């Protein structure tokens, strides 16, 4: 305690002595018939009141240290992904699913695990699969979900929620089957929070037979053979003879018999000839063998888009350059593509350009995709350019521009009637060309775009794109149009420029490759060590994706995928056009969805202000089967048309590709983050191992003792008591 106004000790004693002396003198000399006891009481009451008032004049302040240490948080993340349904945990002498001991550990009255942690920390319990969800209230258990496992994202999300506050650690309860994205332990090390994994499940290989993946061209052709490759993973059944069945609409269309070999993964192949058009769904199934740990991965659905006949491609270039020669060879070798290739410089010399290039709209519409190479604007007549615009804008066709120093230069297509078709805006002086080797980097959109998938997995795809030979010339100096999307770019520490760009145009698509030298990709590793199919695969996927357009309509709907996993969001994009096929923003749009159980409901569409005439909608695929999405629109009560697509949803099987505890990942994670790994059987010893990460923080608090109603009441009470006693004894 201290005083705001400090007096010397002798001054305080002197004042108190004066108060005591005067008060005692007055009452002792009082000539009244009162007892000595009453006089003493009156003296004490007045002295106490005077002392209190004197102390108030000194303004005493109480000084104390208070603990302001922030809460010491501990985050508990429990895996609820689909793999937690696997029954491989021994519990009370029987095999139970992985979620049971997790729920017992966290919520059972017999378990003091959480109580021990609560005694030292402020705990926060979450459940996660692909997404993180906080558990609030008095939860009784965690239910297994339907999603994949994303450990990295879940931990980062939880950390961000408590950023700036003390976190002593993260208790991660999981089987370690991270499969929703690439697992990057460095991202978790950087957060500098110890992670204490609790492993759930059997770490040893389990008896299991499952389908890992299915490979097939996403677009196949009516009455043409298409090959379907099924990768089978075998654990514990080497030598067994099994039958694989391929079904369409519950009808068996293929049976393959194979003997399981020593290797874990092996491929079985089906060859089918589609007999109907549209989006078709297929099912591949394996027999259920004795003692399999799970049968969730014994069948897998997939879908194919079946289109009529071959795709027809018209490729027009200015000169017989290397890019022309290589692309011509790829197009002509593809059995599902009928290609017409034309070099304008050669055609001019032979006076055959008018004969070879389509002279009418009907002739041009015989093609599905048009490829324009490195040509100047004057190499195409005005009529031909108008035909090309109509071809894309009004007939759902697609165009590819192979940008070069001629096509994007000062006299290039950027100043022609085809300028609007380009996803870029060229400067008046034309774009600049740079003759130097460079490599491409995929953008975020490019990583998931069907054209850019050169590898079977995202990791392999990234590796292939990183190792592709460099291109020889890039075009720069342009601006992207609104609504254009960059799939790949030139990246330098000081400069990033788009290279592969596409945009919707009217009812069609426009793709630009602002570079030369793609033919280098046909040789795989730089240095021409061996041939590679990356170049062929890229162009095959590009042509098929560009050709997958619906007929010209004022309403056009597309989905981001053809097949979804249960629990995923179906994302639809709707484009609306007026009668001249210009973007239309004022239509009254409706989207009806027919569920697998044939029930119909309507979902909301949101206008995308970044692109005229574009609307988006999304909803959850919570049932397995076929979803039909029908978009329709009206204006002033008059219908402007409709369009519909079909997509499918299927059960998640990725979670069961490796149906065992990934102890290696969890122990590594614990080691690199300064945590400790525990199997769930020993998890109860964990609370004692978690170190307190906080340091005590104290602050000084001052409180005025004099500035209080209690002091005033006490002083008034003493003086009042003295007055009351004096009056009672007849002294006033």
Describe this structure in words.
- With 732 residues, the protein is of the alpha+beta class.
- The protein folds into 5 domains: 94 residues; 162 residues, Rossmann fold (3-Layer(aba) Sandwich); 100 residues, Immunoglobulins (Immunoglobulin-like); 237 residues, Class I glutamine amidotransferase (GATase) domain (Rossmann fold, 3-Layer(aba) Sandwich); 96 residues, Immunoglobulins (Immunoglobulin-like), CATH 2.60.40.
- Helices cover 23% and strands 33% of the residues.
- It has 16 helices and 41 strands.
- The strands form 10 sheets. It has an 8-stranded mixed sheet with strand order 19-18-20-21-29-28-27-24, sandwiched between helices. A 6-stranded mixed sheet has the order 7-6-3-8-9-40. A 5-stranded mixed sheet has the order 11-17-16-13-14, with no helix packed on it.
- Helix 1 runs antiparallel to helix 2 and helix 2 packs antiparallel against helix 16.
- The radius of gyration is 39 Å and the shape is elongated.
- It starts with a strand and ends with a helix.
Rg to the nearest angstrom? 39 Å
Average pLDDT number: 84
CATH topology of the largest domain: Rossmann fold
Provide the CATH top-level class of the largest domain. Answer: Alpha Beta
Assigned CATH architecture of the largest domain: 3-Layer(aba) Sandwich
Distance between the termini: 40 Å
Count of the separate structural domains: 5
The main pleated sheet reads as: 8 strands, mixed
What order do the strands of the largest sheet run in, or round the barrel if closed?
A: 19-18-20-21-29-28-27-24
Coarse morphology: elongated
Q: What does the oligomeric state look like here?
A: single chain
Q: What proportion of the residues form beta strands (DSSP E)? A: 25-35%
SS class: alpha+beta
Low-confidence stretches: 351-355, 525-531
* Strand count: 41
Number of helices: 16
Give the fraction of residues assigned to helices: 10-25%
Quick one: CATH superfamily of the largest domain? Class I glutamine amidotransferase (GATase) domain
